[in-house]
Amino acid sequence: MNVVNPDTLLEELPGNVFADIERCLNENNSWQKLAEACINGYGDNMFRGCDIKDMQRSVSPARMLLNKFMQMNLQVNEFQALCMLKDNSLVHIHNKLVTNVPMQIYSPEEDMKLVYKLNETIELVVEVDGSPLPTCQWYHNNQVVPGQTSSTLTIDKFGVHHEGVYHCLLRQSLKGEVSEMASGKFCLSVKPTPPKIVKDLPEEITVIHHEDLELTFEVEAYPKPEDYVWYKGNARYLSTIEPKLRISHVDSLVAGQYHCEVQNDEGSCSTRKASVTVLGSALSTSRPQILRKPIANASYNVNDWVHLSCRVQCCQPVTFTCFLNNELITSDGKEIIIQSSSDKDEYECKLSYEITEDNMERLDWKLKFHFEAASSVDRVLTPDVDVKVKPEYGKKTYTARNKWALLVGNSDYSAAKKLTAPFNDMMALADELKKLRFRVLALTSLKEDQFRNALRNFSQLVQKDDYVVFYFAGHGFSVQKFDYMVPVDAELISEQAAVNLGRNEYKKMQPSHCIDVDTVTSHLQSANPALILYIYDMCRHIQSNVSSSKLPDSSLLVDAKANSYFIYATSLNYDAFEVEDGMSCLMKQLKSIIGTKVSVGQLGQRFKELFRRTKEVQERQIPRTEGDLAEPRSLTDDACPTAEDKAGVLQQWQRLSSVGGGTEEECDVPSCTDQRMCAGML
């Protein structure tokens, strides 16, 4: 690479640099791509068609092209701009000259919401400048899009799986320093489309008696239809969740005409009628008669077995089929055992099903069984049997030694936007945790030194086998995948750097004056508690142009201990929002379920499911959960302090809580509106 001034004229370039550019332009006819771009009206420098013909006849077409540029007094930066006009195919020539110009994004200037039709081909373009030219990497919902490293992202046959948020992360190495910058977001969605049949049902279909019948078709629609309603003749027959109807062991009663109606919010359509003929049936007046229906116990626990049986009478041989939640199940000899027997004209099926925690999690704690008894000419279904399982964690009961919570709500910022929700959210969470017998320390508007003191002193209360909740609400940001919490007295960076970083105030904070989340983890993990739940209600926009010297000390990182779970209000490079009632979107949903008797992992999943219904911030705030918690511990588990605790840490807590006017028995939250009192406690 050759470092030159961007205002330098081409004719002033050193001879070896000029010769290098000439050689590259002559390779693969790159000179012609550049000349044709000028002829087609790009930029202020245009040639005539005859000029290109003259160049083609020259020994060095690139030299003639460069001579014409020099006659126009073209500068280096203008030449580099021309090299970017032809589908980025001349980037290698652009990079022959380095002008040390910081990267800059010209488009998109702000986040864009774009709607496209199904199967449409689309292009997302980021217009960027800088020398050396920044490298590009596209992301879809914060996940790397493999192989997409150009400033243009092409999506062929746009579909529902392409929906979401895209952005391009740019990286430039300038004078030995690497900086990153994220483009605006492209929020893509599919244009609502009424259903349209693209592959219809067959007009006629013939099936052999006692074989299986399957009717399928293909439909294009958005949003996807919730169900497909099948009709036999003019009578409603069945609803399915996909455009497929399957009937097992057909008999003569299956014969007839079938069609399916499809509907979404945009419209409806219907398939043609398919005429089904059943061959080889032998009609009989007999059909299986149910003698004993399956009956379940009143309730079950995890690791119990469910034993169900069904007995029928029929003059024809009978085969049984078992269903769980309307899905066919078969015997595996381990967790599912199915046995059939007969005695003259009576037939019996016995089903044994083991209730495991994994199965219950997969089935969302819902078990509904039924049997099908089929003879050669007919079949019957038993009524559904609902099995109630107590939501317990197997036979094992988990307890905490002590239950602690440190809540920080930063609202009154001196150098950033003041916030309303953090204090309200902190107090709402404190109320819910007190109901679960947590001892809660809630602090508001902490300065940096108060924040660090709070962490250090609070962690001294935590012991092995304790449960801990840490909560922070306030401004936040990310640097190279490290998350930072902003104290109320955090300082701004330099004015010029702030201009380069963009529109968000919290992007202008000095990381060295903020608290990174690994500092919290280091303090709280030191005693190896049984459970730590971290809740971070803050923005996580990426802040670039930060030197590695300001990143967290690697000595703070701790080994994973299979005891942690994280709930982030939003994903990396996304905002977190407040709602009109003075509460954050995270707390609005979390406070309604935090007292539910489920594992912390299930709590995080339910929170994300509830959050999807928050229409005010759809696509703008996407929460994230993660963790290595190995045991199904719950915030509702009981606490069992030791005798040593009652004379030790619990007395320390009683002295601390009395400063705020509470008692140890009440587990009250100290009042934290007085900063002097906060400093005294810490």
Could you say what the CATH topology of the largest domain is called?
Rossmann fold
- The number of helical runs is 16
Number of domains: 5
Q: Which CATH architecture of the largest domain would you pick?
A: 3-Layer(aba) Sandwich
Distance between the termini: 56 Å
How many beta-strand runs?
A: 40
Biggest sheet: strands, sense, closure? 6 strands, mixed
Average pLDDT number: 84
Helix content: 10-25%
| Overall 3D form | flat
The Cα radius of gyration reads: 34 Å
Please describe what this structure looks like.
This protein is an alpha+beta fold. The protein folds into five domains: 2-98, Death Domain, Fas; 101-190, Immunoglobulins (Immunoglobulin-like); 193-279, Immunoglobulin-like; 289-387, Sandwich (Immunoglobulin-like), CATH 2.60.40.10; 403-681, Rossmann fold (3-Layer(aba) Sandwich). Helix content is 21%, strand content 31%. The chain has 16 helices and 40 strands. Strands 4, 7, 8, 10, 11 and 12 form a six-stranded mixed beta sheet that branches. Strands 14, 17, 18, 20, 21 and 22 form a six-stranded mixed beta sheet that branches. Strand 35 (476-479) and strand 36 form a beta hairpin. Helix 1 (15-26) crosses helix 4 and helix 3 (49-57) packs across helix 4 (61-71). The longest helix is centred in the middle third of the chain and has 15 residues, at 421-435. The radius of gyration is 34 Å and the shape is flat.
